[in-house]
Amino acid sequence: MFKRLDFILQKYEELSMLVSDPDVISDQGKWRTYMKELGELEPIVLAYKEYKKTEENLAGAKEMLSENDDEIREMAKLEISECEDKLAELEQQLKILLLPKDPNDEKNVYLELRAGTGGEEAALFAGDLLRMYSRYAERHGYKVELTDVNDTGIGGYKQAVVRIIGKGAYSRLKYESGVHRVQRVPETESAGRIHTSAATVAIMPEVEDVEVDLSWDDIRVDTFRASGHGGQYINMTDSAVRLTHIPTGVVVQCQDEKSQLKNKEKAFTELKSRLYAFFQQQQHDEQAELRKGQVGSGDRSERIRTYNFPQGRVTDHRINLTLYKLDQFIDGDMDEIIDALITAEQAEKMKNF
């Protein structure tokens, strides 16, 4: 590990000199590439420098043990203990920093919600999840754009797609893919019986222009009148857009904007993301199987998380973690479970470090 860290430190110092070179600065493309790499290495380098500094402090404290002064020796023992604890923490931090990075972690995401088994109650639960993720995004300073929706008119959603914009959005939300199960008494239930329903969540990273070679020649464009609440304008204008990628059959639609052009632009961006996921699935069977396994069929038994309203608890079944603060969680306070999922994934990767 330390040979690798020495190499990274040397690389960081070389890049630091390069980004100050006038010839590199004049080539903005090259300069941005070097700056990006420098930014990725900086957290590792800072932690490694702190580790080396702590090692020096530890060596100095051990030398103090040979002093004749009892008070100095006691101080040295205390410093040795503090340095050893700090070194252990820093070593763990460095191991985590050196773990392979998900190349999509810093990207925006498309979050797709679908009502599963449970009828109208499942659609209402999908609406609750949509509000939960919107509030979570707000807490983290992310921007939320609704791109497509099929609502029931009473607060429920058969399907909804939102774009969540913010650095690191995918790194936090990628763990949400799968079946979410709810247990509660529906508003329409007069006998007070608890029902179990489900909704599925799919998370896809937004892709950059260079990642998918997409031509309008391969796309069929259909326009139609937007549905849902929106006044007379909705019924008078074919503003909604549906894009079909002819070679693959992938379809997206957008009706969020009043402008057909803006809907077309949004749908095109989403189509690139869907095609990115489509091609990734073709190339990596293992990833495809993982995604299918996460989302499943929408059946209640295929769940990653359960929201039990009568008991006020939320349980993530992947890590067997239960929190008795469902109200806060459904209001977007999701970090405790997401942080635990990140820690569990890091621990799994550490086994093969």
Cα-to-Cα separation, first versus last residue: 9 Å
As a percent range, the share of helical residues equals: 40-55%
Which regions contain 5 or more consecutive residues with pLDDT less than 50?
229-235
User: Compute the gyration radius: what is it?
Assistant: 26 Å
Arrangement of strands in the largest sheet: 2-3-1-5-4-9-10-11
Quick one: biggest sheet? 8 strands, mixed
Please work out how many helical segments DSSP would assign. 11
Estimate what percentage of residues fall within beta strands.
15-25%
The SS-based structural class is alpha+beta
Helix and strand run = HHHHEHEEHEEEHEEHHEEEHH
Which of globular, elongated, flat, extended, rod-shaped describes the shape? flat
The chain-level mean pLDDT equals: 84
Number of distinct beta strands: 11
Question: If you had to describe this structure to a student in words, what would you say it looks like?
Answer:
The chain is of the alpha+beta class and 353 residues long. The chain contains 11 helices and 11 strands. The chain has helices at 2-18, 22-26, 28-64, 70-98, 119-139, 169-173, 232-236, 260-283, 285-295, 326-330, 335-350; strands spanning 109-115, 143-151, 157-165, 178-184, 195-205, 219-224, 240-245, 250-254, 305-308, 313-316, 321-323. Strand 9 (305-308) and strand 10 form a beta hairpin.
